[in-house]
Design goal:
With 412 residues, this protein is of the alpha/beta class. The chain is built from twelve helices and 21 strands. The chain has an eight-stranded mixed β-sheet. Strands 7-8-6-15-16-17-14-19 form an eight-stranded mixed β-sheet. A three-stranded antiparallel β-sheet has the order 3-9-5. Strand 16 and strand 17 form a beta hairpin. It is globular. The structure holds flavin-adenine dinucleotide (FAD). Keywords: Oxidoreductase. One of its GO terms (molecular function) is oxidoreductase activity.
């Protein structure tokens, strides 16, 4: 039976939810305070990460932890003032990263990630967005021979275990594949299953346009106004109040504010990240992660996009793009970057959960309310895959992947 459903948040996760529900015949209104795909889902590196079967865990070895605390290395940065408040959730993140628990999370995560490319594929075709997508994979590059050799061992093992396609390129093979590189890299793993997108925000906008063509409605409105309304929900929009039997919270890094107001204490936190484009005259053909310096170089429509690793800070604290400044220097070792395109870097926030699993399913204590957020480093990848899972749950069907690892009720 078709229902009226409000979807709050129009990033990759919310737009995919709206599409999946509309496709099933529901009357869906997608509500956001901004245009679709203009926040986190705009600013990422554009990877549809079929190889990401292992979510980012909290380091368990003291050498790495001490390196991060001492702020040596460019992959992680933090604001000391934010750490006290973050301590409980980070302690839980650390516990959930213990080998036995992490193994269970990998199994659950891999079961979802397996579907990420095929779930995107149908929407990319229907949205006419093939021009934005490359199917050639990406490069995980290393500067030191030792780190490269270690990764070759683990990557080939992961690839075998999860039936992933990867090629090992030594320094010479990498240079031959990407002649614009200045040289000096020990080698790279070429992950060949993932797809990459040259304008992530535009892909979300094309999905949103497809949703509208299929009869869905997009409205500007404030999710903070969500209120129970009889047996359903009501939200204020530019077009006045809108009511529906069901509502989905898909607010990415802002989900914690509304869920807290509704009385939920979920172990959510954010990892901020930055990007900037450069007018490089000669871009590498494939996106490249400099694994030892913690940044990605992604050839995009606006230029060569340099994205950074994780910054632990208050969501609203002023930007401190020190990782980007360092990445800019390191990236210049690898390529001719060219002049920055924007005057200031972009900043966004990855919506994270302490157990590294997105929150997908029925809100435990509210009728007709659904949660869909917490996709951390892989929300652009997983949006359509978890949207299908949520749509199947809303329709009371047997879901295509086991929903229990993602059930909001796991937090009580
Ligand atoms: C630097 C960086 C690189 C990344 N690279 C990748 C990558 O290569 N691949 C990948 O898979 N993931 C990547 N990610 C992660 C990915 O971008 C996120 O997981 C994903 O975009 C989250 O999508 P979302 O729809 O949940 O959130 P968002 O895209 O942030 O959408 C949330 C929406 O909620 C809206 N909203 C918030 N508050 C309100 C309100 N009160 N009322 C109405 N609307 C509201 C916002 O306007 C926004 O549109 C990266 C992230 C960063 C920061």
């Amino acid at each position: 039976m078709s229902q009226e459903i409000l979807v709050l948040g129009a990033g990759m996760v919310g737009v995919s939810t709206a599409l999946a529900l509309r496709h099933r015949g529901h009357h869906v209104v997608l509500v956001d305070r901004a245009a679709p795909g203009t926040e986190t889902s705009y600013g990422n590196a554009g990877f549809i990460q079929r190889e990401a079967v292992q979510p980012y865990a909290f380091p368990r070895d003291w050498k790495t932890i001490l390196r991060v605390i001492a702020r040596r290395g460019n992959d992680v940065h933090y604001h000391p003032g934010a750490m006290l408040r973050l301590l409980p959730v980070l302690a839980r993140y650390w516990r959930e990263s213990a080998p036995d628990r992490y193994a269970g999370t990998i199994a659950a995560y891999a079961a979802l990630v397996r579907h990420c490319v095929s779930e995107h594929e149908q929407w990319i075709a229907a949205a006419g967005a093939e021009d934005l997508v490359s199917k050639a994979g990406w490069l995980e590059a290393y500067r030191s021979q030792r780190a490269f050799d270690d990764t070759v061992r683990t990557a080939t093992m992961v690839a075998r275990e999860h039936a992933l396609d990867c090629a090992v390129l030594d320094g010479a093979a990498l240079q031959a594949a990407e002649p614009v590189l200045h040289g000096g890299l020990a080698g790279a793993i070429h992950w060949r299953d993932p797809w990459t997108v040259s304008d992530p925000g535009e892909l979300v906008q094309r999905y949103a346009a497809l949703f509208e063509r299929q009869g869905g409605i997009v409205r500007r409105g404030d999710a903070a106004t969500l209120q129970p309304d009889g047996s359903g929900w009501r939200v204020m929009t530019d077009a006045g109040p809108l009511s529906a039997a069901q509502a989905v919270i898909a607010l990415g890094p802002w989900a914690s504010t509304l869920t807290r107001t509704l009385g939920y204490r979920l172990p959510l936190f954010i990892k901020r990240g930055y990007h900037r484009h450069y007018a490089s005259a000669r871009m590498p053909s494939l996106p490249l992660l400099d694994a030892e310096r913690g940044f990605v170089l992604a050839p995009m429509r606006r230029g060569l996009r340099l994205t950074t690793g994780a910054e632990f800070a208050h969501h609203d604290a002023p930007p401190t793009p020190v990782q980007l400044a360092a990445a800019e220097r390191y990236a210049s070792d690898l390529v001719d970057l060219g002049a920055p395109v924007e005057a200031q870097p972009w900043m966004g926030a990855r919506p994270c959960v302490a157990d590294m699993r997105p929150v997908v399913g029925r809100a435990p204590r509210h009728r007709g309310l659904w949660f869909h957020f917490g996709h951390a480093h892989q929300g652009f990848t997983l949006g359509p895959a978890t949207a299908r899972l949520l749509a199947e749950l809303i329709d009371g069907e047997t879901p295509y992947v086991d929903p229990r690892p993602y059930d909001p009720a796991r937090f009580g």
